[in-house]
Amino acid sequence: MGTAVERVTNTPLPERQAWKNLEHHYASVKGLHLRQLFAEQPDRGKKMTAKAVGIYLDFSKNRITDETLKLLVQLAEECGLREHIDSMFRGEKINITENRAVLHVALRAPAGTSIVVDGQNVVPEVHAVLQKMTDFSNRVRTGEWKGHTGKRIRNVINIGIGGSDLGPVMAYEALKHYSERSMTFRFISNVDGTDFAEAVRDLDASETLFIVSSKTFTTLETMTNAQAARAWALAALGNDPKSIAKHFVAVSTNAKEVAKFGIDTANMFEFWDWVGGRYSMDSAIGLSTMIAIGPDNFRQMLNGMHEMDEHFRTAPFEQNLPALMGLLTVWYSNFFGSETVAVLPYEQYLKRFPAYLQQLTMESNGKHVTLAGNQVTYQTGPIYWGEPGTNGQHSFYQLIHQGTRLIPCDFIAFMKTLNPVGRQHDLLMANVFAQAEALAFGKTAEQVKAEGTPDWLVPHRVFEGNRPSNTILVERLTPSSLGKLVALYEHSVFTQGTIWGIDSFDQWGVELGKVLAQRIIPELESPGEPKLQHDSSTNTLIESYRSQKE
Ligand code: F6P
Fold it and tell me: Whose CA is nearest to atom 9 of ligand 1?
């Protein structure tokens, strides 16, 4: 039989029986309208739903039949999804191109459980770091941890990029309601000096703590910003190198580089190479989150993630939320040819959730070869994008409703608001339900005409409908429910990657640009004219910049 990885590499996806069945089936359902599907199956809106760990998924407004679901589940089985899930949870090295285990699920495994990597149970290490984070967060939050001049810390700035930024900033925004409001939290990621300058301009260095977050501790942007932060802090703190220990801590897997930067490794919070950057917001990378919301809330977030992990690991695929969402994404990407997925949270606190998901989904599944290294002959990861509702409605929804592209949407909404202001929550929720309804059922020419619309205007006012969406309902935005939503998408990405037979856990595609930038940096900074050996476009751009730079 071999390992799950070996099995999925055996038969090319388009040659699998379930895939062929789906191709055949697609021909018979592609013309069906959601109006017809609902008319023929009046209880569809109740039946095509799944509920687990407090999350309700209504997937009835998808262009599927019971048969589609059966075939998608068959595809998951043929692609070894169950075995692949088990391999991940067992700590097998399923990230084959980096020869690494993929164990973000271990970051939220309860104390006392066991997940073994290279002969060692990693769960106790995870809890030891969590305890260290808890102690430190408590000291900062209570004011026990003092800055160099004896003042308490009032500002926390996370310096990181990619997974070392997007998770922390998303979680901070999402859980702001639970955060310590007497403190200021900021995030510096871009190597653009503006990001740094704007983050520190009104802060007092003697009250500011920098968390330098970088798995590798070699990332150009983060190291450059960390150096700038050190210079800024030193200048304000009398150039005393001893001040660094009170104002800088590190989150990394690389103790050597942390020490080289000048941060005492006693003030380093560790994580491990089996945590991918985009899967790391619940590791020590979440230190800023923990300081903001407190250790108890952070643990609630981990518990929520763990509940979703267990659901994904054990639930039958027909009722398995991440598996269903992942399979539906495959259905639209590979059979309907849709290019994107819109994620539309009707919750202002989730304003950075789509940006967070972009790295999670696209760095994971933007791959052009299979695990065996063969060019794929089908589309892989779709483009994820989105904005919180209702803002998007007054911007890009026009294209989703009446444009020429098929854009599956995920609507995310909460039954109870954290900010009950007047009628606003009812209005917000009415809009979620209305949008999903309008997308699915549209408005026919007959309906438009019946409203007295002149003939020439009718085509402009027709809504074809038949535009698919999921609606995800959650009781309330809490640390736990945020954890569940994050894990839901993590495992949906896993499901998609398993079907496509790709490595969802490497990111070689980010390397080339980094290497070329390293070559160009000295060409921009050299006092003498460098001998440029790029293509004529790149050479001219560099020359032009050199001639005008200050
Ligand atoms: O963009 C590539 C990447 O390696 C991401 O995967 C990662 O999240 C980010 O850079 C930051 O890396 P690090 O945490 O090592 O600074």
Answer: 162
